[in-house]
Each structure stands twice: as C-alpha cells, then as structure tokens.
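Example record

One chain of 411 residues, shown exactly as stored in the release files.
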Amino acid sequence: MTMFLFVFFFLLIDYYFFQAVLVATKNIAPAWKSGVRIGFWVPTFLCIVALAWWALGNPYYFTATTRSFIITGIVATYFSKILGIIVLFTDDVQRGVRWVVRFFSRGSGESLPGSAIPRSEFLSKFALATTAIPFTAFAYGIISGAHDYRIKRVTVKLKNLPKSFDGIRIGQISDIHSGSFWNKTAVKGGVEMMMREKPDVIFFTGDLVNNESSEVKEYVPVFEKLKAPLGVFSITGNHDYGDYKTWASQEEKKKNFADLVQAHKIMGYDILMNEHRFLELGGEKIAIIGNENWGAGRFSKYGKLDLACQGTDEAAVKLLLSHDPTHWDAQVRPNHPDIDVTFAGHTHGFQFGVEIGNFKWSPVQYVYKQWADLYREGDQYIYVNRGFGFLGYPGRVGMPPELTIMELKRG
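Predicted structure tokens for this chain:
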C-alpha cells in the first residue's frame, strides 16, 4: 500500500509539472518537442520501477552503494521537481486571482469571454530552470564533492601541556563508512593526503563501516597505510555495531562486531574499547582515552567513560576519543573536567552546507550543538570532524570530507 501511495504521489507531481513542459516546449522544433516531452517521463518510469523493486524484491541483493544511488536518484528527481512546482503554483495563484478579478469586474450576470488565462511561458521555463539547479547540485556533489578531501588545521593551547609534547601534531580521521565508497582511487588519494602531513599520532573516531564488517575488507590495504610515529588509535562509532541491520541471530551479530574489531587490529590501529593508553616523551605522559560509542537520545550507549579513565590521574593532559559529540555536554564536561580535548565525528556536517570564511551553516546545526570545528567551554575543548566518507547520499555539497591536523601548544 505504501508503494502505491508513493507512485500516486509521484504521478500527481509529474502530471502537474508536465503542464509547464507543454507550455515551455510549444514553440520549439517538432522533433525536439517530442523528444523532450517523452523524455520527461523516463525518470518517472525508472523511479517507479525502482520503488517496485524495493517494495517487492530484495533491495539488499545489491551493494549499499547501489542502494544509495537508487535512493539518491529518486530523492534528487522529486525534490527538484517540488521546487519547480512551487514556482508553478505561484503562477497558478496569480492566474486564479486575475480570473476572479475579471469575473467580478464584468458582473456575475455576464458571460466571461476568454475565461481561461494561459499559463505564463516565462514562469514555465523558470520552473524548469529551478528544477535543474538542485538536480545539478546533487550530481556535482556525487561526481566532485564526495572525494574533495580538505585539510582542516587547528591549534589548541593547553596550559598544562608537558614541554615534551609542545607542538605535537595530531591527525584525525572519522566516519569512513567504507561500505559507501564507489571510487577506490580517490579514497587512496585521501589517505595519501593525510600521510603527506606527517602527523605524530593519528586518531580514528569511529564508523569504519555502515553495518557489516565485510564492507571494509577490500579497503584494509588502503587504510592500513595510515601510520604515525606515536601510533594510530581508534574507537567504534554507532554504525560499527550492526544495530541498523536485522541479523539471523545474536551470535551472527556478535561475530560481525568481533570481525570489525579485528579489522582495526589488522590495519595496525590500537582500538580502545573503554580503555586508555599513555604516550610518553622525555619522561612526561599524556593519556589517550577511547570511549565506545555513547550518544544522547536514541543512539547506542556502549561507552563507559568512568572505566576508560581509571588509572589516568598521572597524565598531565587527557585526550578523549568519543564518536558522538553529544557525549561532551552529557557526560564529559559534567563528570570529567580533567579531560582537556575531545575528538568526535558522527555529524558528517550533514554532507550539505555553506562555508565561506568564518561563516558556516548546515541543517545539522539545528540538531547538534557541536557539529563541526573547534568548540570551547572553560578549559575544555571538543573538535568535531566532518567525516572522511558519506552515508545515504553518495556525495557532499558545500561540506567536503575532512582530514584534521591539530597542533597542541603550551599556553
């Protein structure tokens, strides 16, 4: 029933929008006119076929990437048309107002010659142009934005930072989502970009996969290239536990997670499961604390921060890896004021937004207080990485994938 409602909704949108196509093409050559008018219905047909396959077939027969492209195609097509319909509806409103004015200006007892007020050809063409803009943006975000990796550099001054660690450079990567990738060469380029920065230590802050540990198998040779003199430390994100997939049994789900943890180790990552490690230079120590995923609201709460912090009192500085930035306000700041810097990801910057100079905006900011870049409360900091990969929509618009380089300084 849901599928039929969607099909009806799509056909309603298309029929209304097609009236503008008829007007906009009335003065072009017959061959072009027929081609455009017939071609208009091709995406509709493909979207309906995709919906039928999704509802009646097995959408998991194909890869997550294929599913993402199908969903994106449907959303891009009809989101774009809805924007065009807003323009057409504006035209129809003014046509209706003009008709009413003409009717009453002539008096209700007289006939109303030429009662049909034609749709504006200009607004019909404008509606088509309005539709093309978001569709083009969707396409550009896939072709160019998905792998347009950017280095974000930030400096954090800590008054308690040991001299031996003054100037330490931390590379952060987050939200790989290996099951979504479709361009392995570009992914390799992103890893190489990080390695050219020569960070002293690297943090990976969760979401290696979308659902299944098998997704990362062909990318292990790519991400094992992430190396640093002081080590690569990692944690799990909400997608790593397989919570968003139906499993045949709990044993199968547990094995999937165990394989995910093993993949970290195979790549040479020191995965921190509610535990910590010390970095020591010149007889001085800082602590790297790794918390399993803990998110406010509906997100999974596997993290045990108190456990992870036990035994870290001797460290002059404490750095926390915690995937979900809501953890910072919910538990970190209230209960652990001695944690100096938290490294998070999770938000992806919504994979859509605007960044011009110091101005940045994304719809995700209405959901997450800390969603991208550096935030400070008192002497505590959190940095939220925009993510390396993507989920759902296989691209990014105005919110490119990020590689972070944070330098810690005494001050």
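Notes: Residues 108-112 have pLDDT under 50 and may be disordered.
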